[in-house]
Amino acid sequence: DDGKPRYRALAAAIEERIRDGRMPVGSRLPPQRNLSYDLDVTIGTVGRAYELLVQRGLVRGEIGRGTFVLDPAATESRLGIFLNEHEPATIDLSANNPVPTAAGEELRMLMIDLLNSQGIDRLLANYPPAAGWLAARRQAGQWLAHLGVNRPAEQIVMTGGAQGGLAAAVAALTRPGDGLLLESLAYPRFMSLARTFGLRPEGVAIDGRGLVPEALDAACSQGRGRVVIFSPNMNNPTTALMDEDRRRSISRIAEKHDLLMIEDDVYGPLVERKPAPVAELAPERTIYITSLSKFLAPGQRLGAIAAPARLVPVISQRYADLALGAPALAVELLSFAQSSGLLGRAERFQRDAIARRQQLVRSALPHGRIMSGPEALHVWLEMPPGLDADELCLGLAGEGIRIAASREFSTTPERPAAVRISIGGSINDDALV
Questions:
Q1: Which of 6, 92, 269, 318 is 20 to 30 A off residue 16, Cα-Cα?
Q2: How far is 54 from 70, CA to CA, in rounded Å?
């Protein structure tokens, strides 16, 4: 064991066999499931190894047929010294970036105004308090109220994006060895957080309305975790939107089991008509987290946490331990964007752009196998019988197109045969379809 991640070690072993001729040009690699069983590794490990080999130009995935060895000499000159940096995807549909809109130009002008404003030198010359400057937290309170969460500034913590806020909340509420309850299909970085903090990720069943109350009740009764992370406004990847009755049921179960809830609402700004946040139904046991990333500027790392008063000090301290504080320019930009009305316009721009792209994609994809809402930044496409999601992703990667298979999102051994296709980002509408 040389310390390499397993998928890299597997890719290196296969590459060695290709280069020394033990796996000749044109030969078919074993199906991913078979190899994962034979080697006693996860299918995700095999999938990542195969994808790395595609990136290196050593194999090619063919949809419905499998993965085949290419001539390494034929690709050597093309890859050259940039082998480790090679990125074949010319169309990346794997990341949920917002659609570039007219809000981008407004944002650029606001940033110029911000940099020319009085007091900017003083702002940049000081570390912020752990939770952020009180004036900024008041400004964030107005933004959160627009999203349905009403909290005083003292219960708000400024963060560098939602991910930093999630990390601080998880660090504050758990101890190594604890279970962390997650939706059975969830944002992959939730699993990463669990591993980072030495937690056991525990998948809880979902359906078309989000978390299944009976499954959550059972998980709590079995002592599988004291904290749950979930996304009521658009599960990632299924796009399930939790209705009000389901939110109330989840809140009652949390009360019954003294469960703490982390409500991830990064997609909330995209959903125009939505029930009240769980944070309003169970304010004393919900940590609400959102950010600007899905409708304005993911590169401007800014988010906010609304938490029960008793938890604000420990969450603030954990965030300070991780990052010292939210980026000063991004925090100040929130004030400028809110007072100018840009936040509201950016939400509307994004919703309109997404609705247009959803129509385009739905017209191009097979009917009856799509799960998506008109305000979702991606579609969840279920595979027809006989088509494997991992093989599809691998085949498309060989064509320079990147999408995400269900294995990336699964928190349980069982997962559907499905892929997530993102429709945001800078790709133009014509290239999308």
A1: 92
A2: 9
What is the structure's pLDDT at 224? Answer: 96
Straight-line distance from the first to the last Cα atom of the chain, in angstroms, rounded to the nearest whole number: 44
188-196 and 162-173 helices, crossing angle to 10°: 40
Q: What is the mean pLDDT of residues 60-65?
A: 75
Confidence at residue 103, expressed as pLDDT on a 0 to 100 scale: 76
State the span(s) of the chain assigned CATH 3.40.640.10.
Answer: 120-342
For the segment 326-351, the average pLDDT, to the nearest whole number, is 87
E strands, 156-309, where?
156-159, 179-183, 200-204, 206-207, 210-211, 227-230, 260-264, 286-291, 303-306
Q: What is the dotted CATH code of the domain comprising 6-88?
A: 1.10.10.10
Distance CA 253, CA 260 (A): 10
User: Range with the lowest mean pLDDT among 55-69, 160-174, 214-228?
Assistant: 55-69
CA distance 312 to 33: 46
Q: Could you tell me which CATH number the domain at 120-342 has?
A: 3.40.640.10
Return the percentage of the chain with pLDDT > 90, whole number: 52
Instruction: Characterize 253-271 residue by residue with b for buried, 16 or more Cβ atoms within 10 angstroms of its Cβ, and e for exposed.
Output: bbeebebbbbbbbbbbbbb
Is residue 59 a contact partner of residue 50, using CB atoms and an 8 Å limit? Answer: yes
Q: Which residues contact 18 (CB under 8 A, 6 or more apart)?
A: 58, 59, 69, 72
- Number of H helices and E strands in the chain, helices first, is 17, 17
Instruction: Give DSSP secondary structure letters for 121-176.
Output: HHHHTSPPPTT--HHHHHHHHHHHHHTT----GGGEEEESSHHHHHHHHHHHH--T
Higher pLDDT, 35 or 5: 35
The identity of residue 396, as a single letter, is L
216-248 b/e with 16+ CB inside 10 Å = b? bbebbeeebbbbbbbbbbbbbbbbbbbeeebbb
The structure's pTM equals 0.80
Q: Where in the chain is the domain with CATH 1.10.10.10?
A: 6-88
Lowest-pLDDT range of 69-73, 90-94, 152-156? 69-73
pLDDT at res. 83: 34
Q: Is residue 1's pLDDT more than 80?
A: no
DSSP code of residue 115: H
* 138 exposure class (CB count in 10 Å sphere: 0-12, 13-18, 19+): middle
Length of the chain: 433
- pLDDT reading at 139 higher than 80: yes
Residue pointed to by tokens 């290709």: 18
